[in-house]
Structure formats: C-alpha cells, structure tokens
C-alpha cells in the first residue's frame, strides 16, 4: 500500500495474510470463560476446518471531515449523530473502510447448524474473532503510518453504534463500492453478506485523544453487556 | 456483419475503462455514472468515439449499474435508450473503418443472492431481464455481462439474456487474488456453467493487470471450446502528484496482452484504469495477428459452485443415498419436510468420498417439484459437490436445473421419443450432462448390440438440439442376474461397446445386479470391479458399503491413479475392524463424580460415548427408565450449571448433542411412541429476520426434553405460523428475533396469533428483546436463554395435563 493512498478520494483494496488467532477472544464470543478439555477438542477441530478457507480483504478511502453546527459532513455522507461527532472531535479527516473474511465462514456456519449446533456456535465465534482481528490489523497499520506524520487515530466507529444510524451503511457501500471491490453487499435489512464483515470510520487528528489509553468499555453506557471488560 | 460470424476469423478489440475517465471529467464519488448518459451525452459519446478510433470493434454502453434496483423503470428506460444512442453516435462519428458493434453492458446488481445473501435467484433474473429487454428495444448488437464475482448471479444474468433476446452474449467474470470468484468458483467451473448455457464468448475482466490474470485465462483456454475474452485492469492503482494512476503503462499492458492473444485469447480490451491509449497500443501490437484456432475440448464434466468433476480418467463415484426408494426413515423425513435429514445424508456421503450426489426426492404423496427445488437449493448452500438431478417428473427437473448453481448431471433421459422431447430442451437451455438409459418404447433390449443402437439413436436426436455427445453419459442398465444369468455379461459388454464404438462415457446403478441375492455386497463390489475394467466412467453407488469402497480404492491403485498408493493406504488405515473401536469396557473410568458413565458422557458432551453407554444400559434397563433416571438428570445437571453460570453455552450445546445421540439409541429400541410424550412446540424466526442460531439451540434443548418441535425456519410469515399452529393444534409458539428492525414483525405475529388462536402461549427471545419489551408486544413469556424456554414449556406442558 502506497503511503500516498491516503491523500486521494477513491477506494483502495488490500489483501491481508491471516492475522494471528486469538483463542481467548473466540471463547469469549462463544460465551465460555475457560477452555475445558472437551471445548479444546472441538475448537481445534473447527479451527482446522477454517484454516486456509478465509480471505482477508479491506477496501478503504480517506475523506475530509467538516462540521457545521450539528451536521457532520464526510463528503459522501452527512449525519447529525452526536456520538460520531464526539468520536471525531478535532479530527480533520477520516479513513472509512469495509473489511471482510469472505463467504466460506458463512457456509461452514450453515453446514454445522445442521450437524452440530455446538460447532456452529464455535464457527460463529471464530468468524467474529477473525473479522475483528482483521480490523485491528488494518487500524494498527493506519495508526502506525499516520504516526510518522504526527497524526493520531480515534477508535473505529461503525453505523449502528450509539445514535449513528445503520441506514448510513448505504452511503458507505455506494461510496466504497464494497460489492465490486471486496465482494460485500448490503441486504434489504441493512445486514452485510458475507456476514463476517465490518464497515467503520476511523477519525484522524493532529492532536492526541484525551485519555487515549482508557478502557473503551468504561465509556459505554450498556453496563449489562456480556462483552463488557 | 454478425459479430459471431466475424469472430470466426478475426480478433475482436473491446474498449477500455469508463469510470476512471468519467472521474477525470468531474464525476463525483458516489454519483451514479449511468445518469451521465442523459446529463453529459457529449462526454460519453466522446469516450466511445475515442475507443472506436483507437481500434475497438466493440464498445460497452455506460450501463454497468443500470437496473431497476437503482433506478425507476422510467429513468432506467431513458438511461438505456440514451446510452445506446450515445454509442450509436460514436459509431457514426468514428474515423475508424473497422467493423463496429455496440454491447449492452450489464454489471452485477450489488446484492448477494440467497442463501449467502437475501436476494432471490428469480428476482435477480427478472432484474437483469428488464435491462436486457430495454437493450433489445433500443438496438444493442450484443449483451456484455461483466465483472461478475458470483457464479449464481452470473447464471441469473445469462439466463435473463437468453430468455429475453436472441443477441450474442459475452460473459466475463472478476476473479479474486486466489484465482477464484469471490463465492468460490474456479475458472474451469465457470467455463462448464457458461458454455453449458450457451454463452458466445467467456472470460475475465477487472481485478488485476494482464500478468496477474494470466493463470486464470490459461485455465479458460485449456477448457473452453468457445472464444475466450480478457479485459484486465491497467494494473493496480497508486497515487502520483495527487492523482490516481495505474502501475502498468499502455506499452507494457499491450505487450502482456499480446502474449495472451498468442496463446489463444480472441477478444481483448481493458477495464479499470485503461484508456483509449491502452487500446491503441494493444491494437497496434496485435492487429495483424490471425486468431488462434479454437479446438473443441471434448471434456465431459459437471460443476458445482466451486469446482468441476470430469469424466474419463479416475472413475467418478455418485452417492445414491439421497433417494427414498426402500428407505422408511427417508420417506418419513420427506413427508415431514425434514430437510436436515437429506442434508445429513449429503454430508455423510461427502465424508465417505463420493464426487457427486444423486438427488431423488420423488414420493407419490409429496409435491416433488417443490421438494426437489428446495433440496437442491439447501444442498448447494452447504455442500460443494456437483449434484445429479434425479427425477422422472420433467417439471421438477426444470425447476431444479434452473436453480442449480453450476452444470448439473441430469438423471435421466432414455430412447423413448417422449423422454427425449422433454429432457433435451432442458439440457440445452440450462446446460448439463445427461445420463441416458439405453431403453426405448420396446423396453430394455437383452443384447448389448441393441442397447448400443439405442445409444446411437439418442446421440442423433440430441444433436438436433445442438447437444454434443460429450454431454451424454450412457447407462446401459445393470439388470438382475438372479432373473437372467446373462444379464451381468451383456451389461458389461454394452459398457465396452459404447466406449469403443461411440467414444462415450458410461454410468451404472451397480447394485441392481444383485437384487434378490444374499450378501449383495459381494456381487456388487465384484461387478463394480468388472465394470470398471470394461471402461465404466462413473457409478451410482452406496458409499457406506465398505466392499464397494474397497473395490474403488484397489482399482485406483492398480490402474495408476493413486500416487505411491497413498489414497489406498489411507483408506486401509481407516477401515472398520471387526471389533468396534470404542468399547464400553475400554473407556477409562474417571473418579466417581458422576452417578454413571452415561451421565458423565452427557455432561462432558461426548457423543459417541453417550450412545455407547446408552446401548449398554439398554441390555438391562427399560428405555424409559434410562431417560428418566440417566439422561434427564444429566441434562438437568448441565442446565442448572448453565443457569448458575458455571457451565457455558458451548458446553450446554455439546451436552445437548450428546443427549441427542443417547436418545437415538433409545428410539431404536422403542417400538412405538412413548406414552408420556410432551406437547408440540412451534419455533420460528420472525419475518424479515434470518438469524437462527439461537432458535436452533432452543430447538435442540426442547427436543432433548421430549418436546415435539415443529421448526418453521427463519424469515417466517405470520400467516404461516398461525396456519401451522391451528392445523397442528399447537399449544406453545416460540418466536425469535435478533434485530431491532424485526421486532415489529414479532409484534405483528403475536397480534395475529392472539386474535386467531387465543389459547396459544407465546414465548419470545433474542438478543434485542427484554422482559419489558416482550410484555409490551404481548408475549406470554420472555426467555433470556434456551433453558428458560425449556422451563416455560415444561410448565405449560404440566398445566395441559
């Protein structure tokens, strides 16, 4: 990926090698706190079936962000979302991206729903962990690159978070050409296919975020969340 | 001149990129370029003219995303009309004297087809059909389907083109970095599918520069008997001085493409990042070339959404188990619409090593055409093997072929005129390899020579439809040797004759030969060996038969199809021994934390052990007693642990699965339905919602606890839920919704049920629901997890008693 990529208005595609697997996260997504002997054996089995079957793709673009009153203007979408506004305080631009691990995980989930609901659950969890890991790799890459320019990134923010409407998926999809670029499409209820896909916005600023290192969960209002850390 | 005629002796030059040029002219990100046909006709016309001037024979109209999903019908018509007019003006303006054609450009809809997405196949066909009809109306010369990254959507587009026009159709797919389509198809699989359906030229576009697409296009050239096209990008985009440029220069682009034209590409142009300059360079380098002759490949093959299975080398195994004939449990499953049963048969056969699955769901009392279509769709959603559509109901055959995502095997046609009149038009339209039985109005001839004559007659008739003999596999019919001692010999002779005299492949339903005899496996496997020796290409067989698999692997090893006899050795290592691998006595006893070994197996989620210990116990105990004193207490241990959060969801499910295995052993030993059976429960994910993992978990647990679950699936219409509730007199309905957007549809369902079936108790669950919300929409109970649903159902069940 060329460094200059971030300076133009057009979407780029990047393929990634498999990010390292985080077993703890997989177990967490599956609703298990520890890895018992029996769980270990089905997890190993599921991981061996996933191995080599996924493809890791991201398409992305950088756009300036302007704020007038309550309205945030990201060129290709406008929103009055307060939560996104808060996330993008003092940001001059954003990277908007879509990431996917491909359709094969969906096929595995469908297949094992019929054979073994326990494995289907594990495949769901693997898919969730895989796509989040891909997003992490991508975000870290952006962060590292911008650091050279003394710029800083904000935590990624997706449609559906807080008051940022899911409806905005449409604008992101049209702008990034996700279907053409990475094979992700939006269905009528605004869900993505393949299901293990993410779209998000990463704010870019020339000043550091205040209390950047604080736990993201602590600022969240949903206190009964199973995933709260 | 017709473009198909011209193509016979000439290379065809296509145009290059459109989007990149429009952006240069001021097209904004997110703006729909198709509107520029109306708002900026001069810009569009100029681009087309420049391409014609550079040497293009074909320009694609600026209609990539022109479909009724993005535009109103009225605007769509205007766009297509103006787009074609712009191209016509360009054609008239161009200084070039080369022959010129206008292609109606059709790109993907942007929606993912079901089952991966939510867009129905027929909706995709009708979406494409609208654009095609307009293209025909306003005078396009050909249809150019391009940048398709899903085989199923490609099929929908090609079908729409074929059904709504007589124009030539070129089809081009976009491949990913792994050399396959996004949804998994290999280039060879696309060749099989598209050639089978009658595309006039096929190939690849977009994605990468010409060098990186070389592998893909070589696979096309190896397999295709129609002209191959290539329209690569100008490499990958990068940025120089603030503007996007592509990393392959016109000169390098033309040189790379020239190499591929020498290898056999006959239709060439460019995609993203290419300009008239690129096409000009390409034209200059290759205009004097004579196109390379296309040789017919004569490959007999079928395909799935991912790969092809070819005939002629290693013998092909076709699994016969998806067929109700003589199977009581299968018939029950069909009557009950139990698709899971069919899918499990498919998966199990795949694991045994078959290459193709035969699919026969014919039963007098069911709607075969609906069931066959459903079975095909469900199977191809989760299994990547090609399917053999097996039916004598031609309407069912058409429905299934239409929905099939690949080139199917069609079972079967025979020498009767009526059969050929019905099957060949379907094979021609949808593609496929037809299994042809050598019988006709007179029946099955006794002598091999007469069967050969029927085969010849079938070939002659097929050729009237333009179906080549490579797409016919003959089944010379294995007859029963206990009825006629020469039957086996004549069939083997027919296999040999068909291969030698007609050069055609053969298939046999092997097991018929042993009908009425004891130890049929012995006869079947030896007959199979003899038939393979006679040149049999494939067999419809039972992969669970160890004897048959022994013959198969031995044959591979003997005939040099098995490097270092690796497959054979692997096969022998997994051969079942006379003593079962798992024996109750040999399992290490663990400290007495559990009341019994069975309970331990269930709590630990060990499926095989649970079944084994149940069988052990059945030797001394009553089945119902085992359920009450062993299985249910073990499930309760886990259930209580889950409620106390000492047991996690995956473990709960593993135990439930183990219990299911134990129940299967119990069921086998129980003659009739038990007296204390619990009430019926309907489960459904509400309309608009496709999430069903949670619902499936609830189903599994309810079944464990003895409830008779009627699972209506996902995205279920309220009216259907009501209908089934009333029809089956069901006292409990469980509804699931995962998305906030589908909760209203849950509310609607509850309202309808409460009005029309006021006695029914409704339990709801799903990630977005809360107790308060459940109360607000009128549910009787909110279950936060599967165990709570079980407890609720038990309570209602007790009240009913």
Strand percent estimate of chain A: 15-25%
CATH topology of the largest domain in chain B, what is it called?
TIM Barrel
**Considering DSSP H and I runs of 4 or more, what fraction of the residues of chain A is helical?**
25-40%
Measured between the Cα atoms of the first and last residue of chain B, the distance is 82 Å
Shape of chain A: globular
CATH architecture of chain A: 3-Layer(aba) Sandwich
Order of helices and strands of chain A: EHHEEEEHEHHEHHEEE
**Rg of chain B, Cα atoms, Å:** 31 Å
- Cα distance spanning the termini of chain A: 34 Å
The radius of gyration of chain A is 18 Å
Strand line-up of the largest beta sheet of chain B: 1-10-7-6-5-4-3-2
Mean pLDDT of chain B: 92
Strand residue percentage of chain B: 5-15%
The geometry of chain B reads as: globular
**CATH-derived topology of chain A:** NADH Oxidase
Describe the protein:
The complex is a heterodimer of chains A (229) and B (801). By secondary structure, chain A is of the alpha+beta class. Chain A is 37% helix and 20% strand. Chain A has seven helices and ten strands. Chain A has helices at residues 23-30, 37-50, 82-87, 104-115, 117-148, 169-176, 178-182; strands at 12-16, 56-64, 66-68, 71-73, 78-79, 93-100, 152-153, 185-186, 192-193, 197-205. Chain A has a five-stranded antiparallel beta sheet. Chain A has a three-stranded antiparallel beta sheet with strand order 3-4-5, with no helix packed on it. Chain A has a two-stranded antiparallel sheet with strand order 8-9. In chain A, helix 1 (23-30) crosses helix 5, helix 2 crosses helix 5 (117-148) and helix 4 (104-115) runs antiparallel to helix 5. Chain A is globular and about 55 Å long. Chain B has an eight-stranded parallel beta sheet with strand order 1-10-7-6-5-4-3-2. Chain B has an eight-stranded parallel barrel with strand order 13-14-15-16-17-18-19-20, surrounded by six helices. In chain B, helix 9 (214-223) links the parallel strand 6 and strand 7 (228-232). Chain B is globular. Classes of the chains: A alpha+beta (229), B alpha/beta (801). At the A-B interface, helix 2, helix 4, helix 5, helix 6 and strand 8 of A face strand 8, helix 13, helix 25 and helix 26 of B.
């Amino acid at each position: 990926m060329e460094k200059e990529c971030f300076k133009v208005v057009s979407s780029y595609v990047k393929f990634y090698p498999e990010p390292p697997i985080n077993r703890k996260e997989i177990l967490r997504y599956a609703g298990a706190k520890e890895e018992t002997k029996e769980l270990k054996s089905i997890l190993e089995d599921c991981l061996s079936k996933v191995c080599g079957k996924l493809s890791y793709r991201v398409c992305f673009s950088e756009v300036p962000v302007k704020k007038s009153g309550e309205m945030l203007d990201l060129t290709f979408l406008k929103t009055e979302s307060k939560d996104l506004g808060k996330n993008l305080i003092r940001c001059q631009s954003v990277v908007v991206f879509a990431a996917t691990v491909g359709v094969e995980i969906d096929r595995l989930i469908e297949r094992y729903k019929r054979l073994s609901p326990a494995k289907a659950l594990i495949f769901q969890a693997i898919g969730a962990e895989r796509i989040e890991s891909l997003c992490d790799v991508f975000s870290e890459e952006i962060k590292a690159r911008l650091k050279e320019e003394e710029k800083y990134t904000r935590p990624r923010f997706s449609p559906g978070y807080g008051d940022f409407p899911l409806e905005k998926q449409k604008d992101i999809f049209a702008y990034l050409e996700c279907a053409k670029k990475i094979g992700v499409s939006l269905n009528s209820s605004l869900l993505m296919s393949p299901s293990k896909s993410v779209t998000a916005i990463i704010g870019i600023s020339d000043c550091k975020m205040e209390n950047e290192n604080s736990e993201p969960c602590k600022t969240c209002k949903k206190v009964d969340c199973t995933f709260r850390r | 001149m017709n473009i198909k005629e011209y193509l016979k002796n000439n290379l065809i030059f296509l145009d290059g990129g459109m989007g990149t040029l429009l952006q240069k002219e001021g097209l904004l990100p997110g703006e729909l370029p198709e509107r520029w046909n109306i708002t900026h006709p001069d810009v569009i016309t100029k681009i087309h003219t420049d391409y014609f001037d550079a040497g293009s024979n074909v320009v694609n109209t600026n209609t990539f995303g022109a479909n009724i999903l993005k535009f109103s019908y009225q605007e769509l018509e205007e766009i297509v009309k103006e787009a074609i007019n712009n191209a016509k003006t360009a054609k008239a303006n161009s200084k070039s004297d080369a022959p010129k054609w206008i292609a109606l450009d059709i790109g993907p809809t942007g929606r993912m087809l079901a089952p991966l997405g939510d867009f129905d196949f027929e909706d995709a066909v009708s979406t494409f059909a609208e654009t095609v009809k307009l293209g025909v109306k306003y005078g396009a010369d050909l249809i150019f389907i391009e940048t398709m990254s899903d085989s199923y959507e490609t099929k929908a587009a090609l079908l729409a083109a074929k059904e709504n026009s007589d124009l030539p159709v070129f089809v081009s797919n976009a491949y990913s970095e792994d050399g396959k389509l996004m949804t998994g198809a290999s280039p060879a699989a696309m060749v099989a599918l598209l050639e089978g359906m009658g595309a006039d030229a096929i190939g690849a576009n977009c994605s990468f520069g010409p060098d990186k697409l070389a592998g893909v296009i070589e696979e096309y050239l190896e397999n295709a008997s129609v002209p191959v096209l290539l329209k690569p990008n100008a490499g990958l985009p990068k940025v120089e001085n603030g503007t996007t440029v592509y990393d392959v220069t016109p000169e390098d682009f033309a040189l790379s493409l020239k190499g591929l034209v020498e290898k056999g590409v006959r239709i060439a142009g460019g995609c993203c990042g290419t300009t008239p300059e690129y096409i000009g360079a390409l034209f200059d380098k290759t205009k004097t070339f004579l196109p390379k002759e296309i040789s017919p490949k004569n490959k007999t093959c079928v395909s799935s959404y991912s790969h092809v299975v070819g005939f002629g080398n290693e013998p092909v195994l076709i699994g016969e188990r998806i067929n109700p004939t003589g199977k009581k449990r299968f018939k029950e499953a069909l009557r009950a619409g139990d698709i899971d049963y069919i899918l499990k048969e498919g998966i199990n056969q795949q694991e045994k090593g078959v290459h193709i699955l035969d699919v026969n769901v014919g039963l007098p009392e069911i709607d075969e055409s609906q069931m066959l279509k459903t079975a095909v769709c469900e199977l191809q959603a989760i299994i990547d093997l090609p399917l053999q559509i097996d039916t004598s109901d031609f309407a069912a055959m058409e429905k299934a072929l239409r929905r099939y995502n690949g080139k199917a095997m069609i079972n079967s046609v025979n020498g009767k005129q009526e059969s050929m009149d019905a099957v060949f038009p379907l094979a021609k339209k949808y593609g496929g390899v037809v299994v042809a039985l050598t019988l006709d109005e007179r029946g099955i001839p006794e002598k091999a020579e007469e069967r050969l004559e029927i085969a010849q007659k079938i070939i002659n008739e097929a050729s009237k439809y333009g179906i080549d003999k490579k797409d016919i596999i003959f089944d010379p019919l294995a007859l029963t040797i206990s009825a006629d001692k020469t039957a086996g010999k004549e069939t083997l002779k027919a296999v040999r004759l068909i291969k030698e005299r007609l050069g055609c492949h053969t298939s046999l339903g092997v097991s018929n030969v042993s009908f009425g005899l004891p130890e049929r496996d012995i006869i079947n496997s030896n007959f199979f060996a003899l038939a393979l020796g006679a040149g049999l290409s494939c067999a419809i067989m039972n992969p669970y038969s160890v004897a048959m698999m022994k013959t198969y692997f031995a044959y591979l090893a003997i005939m040099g199809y098995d490097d270092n006899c690796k497959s054979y050795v692997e096969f022998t290592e997994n051969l079942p021994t006379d003593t079962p691998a798992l024996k109750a006595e040999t399992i290490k006893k663990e400290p007495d934390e559990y009341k019994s070994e069975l309970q331990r197996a269930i709590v630990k989620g060990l499926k095989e052990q649970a079944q084994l210990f149940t069988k052990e116990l059945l030797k001394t105990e009553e089945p119902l007693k085992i359920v009450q004193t062993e299985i249910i207490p073990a499930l309760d241990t886990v259930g209580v642990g889950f409620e106390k959060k000492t047991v996690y969801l995956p473990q709960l499910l593993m135990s439930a699965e183990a219990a299911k295995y134990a129940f299967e052993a119990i069921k086998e030993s129980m003659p009739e339905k038990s007296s204390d059976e619990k009430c019926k429960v309907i489960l459904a994910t509400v309309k608009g919602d496709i999430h069903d993992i949670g619902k499936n978990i609830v189903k599994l647990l309810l079944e464990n606890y003895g409830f008779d679950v009627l699972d209506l699936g996902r995205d279920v219409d309220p009216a259907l839920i009501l209908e089934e509730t009333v029809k089956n007199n069901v006292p409990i309905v469980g509804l699931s919704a995962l998305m906030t957007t589908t909760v209203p549809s849950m509310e609607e369902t509850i309202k309808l049920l409460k009005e029309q079936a006021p006695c029914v108790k409704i339990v709801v669950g799903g990630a977005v629901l809360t107790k308060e919300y459940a109360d607000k929409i009128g549910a009787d109970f909110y279950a936060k997890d599967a165990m709570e649903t079980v407890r609720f159902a038990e309570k209602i069940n007790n009240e009913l008693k």
